[in-house]
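hiii so um. not sure if this is the right channel but i have a protein structure encoded as tokens and i wanna go backwards to a sequence. like what aa goes where. can anyone help
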């Protein structure tokens, strides 16, 4: 029987080294691989290139790696509400490659599907297209975007089984689904890990073939970036 379960974070992150390119799922703080990020911080890895929609907030998520200057380059769609991210980008301490959000998702999906590149109209005529091949299709201009090449993808799912099959919950699916199988090694952390056969095949979002390692995470804070409450009248 297929068994991709690893016993702890040390096994899950085996082979991760300085200077690698990492994909990290999540949107803001929704669906981020909290346990994997904590272990990356603990290991004090340096010169990392991180592909993620954004970088969380100053004191949580990828913001923790930024605080310790562990990230050399961020490939993201926006700076968001992370002031340290903004500061490092504007000061030149951090290399940042801003990518249209849909393009970021498609660059992950293309890598997942084994496509080397794809054409998209997003960014044509802007600095996003500088230095890239462009081509006209049916009277409309497109930019050739290469698929991502990453060493590891760290994703978070709601449920999974020992074969690596994953089920996401609500909007926490976000970039996690596209990043599965888009790197040399995909590591999935799940809130609940069940034996093979317990997941309804009709509900599985990502089949285990896209996952190399899986483990059950713990102590999820599940923070939100901003919380607005109505003031008492």
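sure thing!! here u go:
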């Amino acid at each position: 029987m297929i068994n991709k379960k690893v016993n702890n974070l040390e096994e899950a992150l085996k082979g991760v080294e300085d200077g690698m390119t990492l994909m990290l799922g999540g949107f803001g703080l929704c669906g981020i691989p909290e346990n994997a990020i904590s272990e990356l911080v603990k290991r004090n890895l340096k010169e990392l290139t991180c592909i993620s929609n954004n970088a969380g907030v100053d004191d949580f998520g990828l913001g923790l790696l930024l605080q310790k200057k562990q990230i050399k380059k961020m490939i993201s769609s926006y700076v968001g509400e992370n002031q340290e991210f903004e500061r490092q980008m504007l000061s030149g301490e951090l290399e940042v490659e801003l990518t249209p959000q849909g393009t970021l998702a498609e660059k992950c999906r293309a890598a997942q599907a084994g496509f080397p590149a794809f054409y998209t109209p997003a960014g044509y005529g802007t600095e996003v297209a500088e230095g890239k091949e462009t081509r006209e299709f049916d009277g409309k201009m497109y930019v050739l975007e290469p698929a991502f090449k990453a060493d590891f993808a760290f994703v978070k799912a709601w449920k999974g089984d020992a074969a690596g099959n994953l089920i996401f919950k609500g909007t926490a699916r976000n970039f996690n689904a596209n990043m599965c199988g888009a790197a040399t090694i995909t590591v999935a952390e799940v809130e609940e890990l069940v034996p093979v056969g317990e997941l309804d095949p009709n509900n599985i979002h990502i089949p285990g073939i896209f996952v190399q390692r899986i483990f059950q995470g713990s102590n999820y804070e599940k923070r939100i970036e901003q919380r607005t409450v109505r003031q008492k009248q």
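oh and The chain has six helices and eleven strands.
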